[in-house]
Design goal:
247 residues, alpha/beta, Spore Coat Polysaccharide Biosynthesis Protein SpsA, Chain A, two-stranded antiparallel ribbon, 10 helices, globular
């Protein structure tokens, strides 16, 4: 596998779970668990990107490399793009976005995502699993992706896509969609292009940044994860589930 970096964007402000990166799971702050997943991967460098001094101090205390970033970033992608510039990474450098609220993301999937980018020649690589249930298919918090026959994304949505025009097609529709996982690999050049562009209308409607990439004509290769990751942490219930998984 070619060399790659991991950047973990972490912000303190969270509407549903304030101070989320510092919330304790199995005796350690959540951000430390995420950092450990990054270090367990084949990454040549793992960096925590934050705009918050409390997060920076906690990360440095457990030995992480920290890059302080601006406060005004609207997304993790923008924060990672700043890291690429601050650390002078060239456009060909491969970066995996390991989100700061994914403490149970297996390190093997970090490697898989980076490998998929290199093998596919895509602008962006990500992972998605079969939809687990009808409830997930209809849940707007479960992002769905439809891919073409070559495994490239056609569209991402919070809606239940594709629409089944008739009862007989409902199961086929659910089988056609995949449950998107929030992990991405991209070269710094592609990331810089993505964050330099204004939000697309479909991105604004769905509140899904990857739709900006599709609107720009960028290719997004979607792979099936070698094992299914646990859910990210957005609520107190998610925090308890992560604690169970990591205990």
């Amino acid at each position: 596998m070619n060399e790659f970096k991991v950047v973990i964007p972490a912000r303190y402000a969270s509407v549903r779970l304030p101070g989320k990166p510092l919330r304790e799971i199995a005796g350690r702050p959540m951000i430390e668990h995420v950092y450990r997943r990054g270090c367990e991967s084949g990454a040549s460098q793992v960096v925590i990107a934050t705009d918050n001094e409390l997060i920076a101090e906690a990360a440095e205390a457990f030995g992480a490399e920290v890059c302080m970033t601006a406060e005004q970033h609207r997304s993790g992608s923008e924060r990672i793009a700043e890291v690429c510039d601050v650390l002078n990474w060239d456009d060909d450098t491969v970066v995996v976005n390991l989100q700061g609220d994914e403490p149970t993301m297996p390190a093997t999937l970090v490697d898989q995502c980076a490998r998929l980018l290199g093998e596919s020649g895509a602008d962006i690589a990500t992972l998605a699993s079969p939809i687990a249930s009808v409830e997930d298919f209809n849940n707007p918090n479960v992002v769905k992706v439809i891919v073409d026959d070559a495994g490239f994304a056609i569209y991402f949505s919070r809606a239940a896509i594709p629409y089944a025009r008739g009862e007989a097609f409902r199961e086929r529709a659910r089988r056609s969609a995949l449950h998107h996982h929030g992990i991405y690999a991209y070269r710094c050049g592609s990331l810089r292009r993505l964050v330099a562009a204004p939000p697309a209308d479909i991105e604004i409607c769905e509140q899904l940044e990857q739709l900006r990439g599709l609107s720009l004509g960028m290719s997004i290769r979607v792979g099936r994860p070698e094992l299914r990751p646990g859910a990210g942490v957005d609520t107190e219930e998610d925090l308890k589930a992560a604690a169970t998984a990591l205990s």
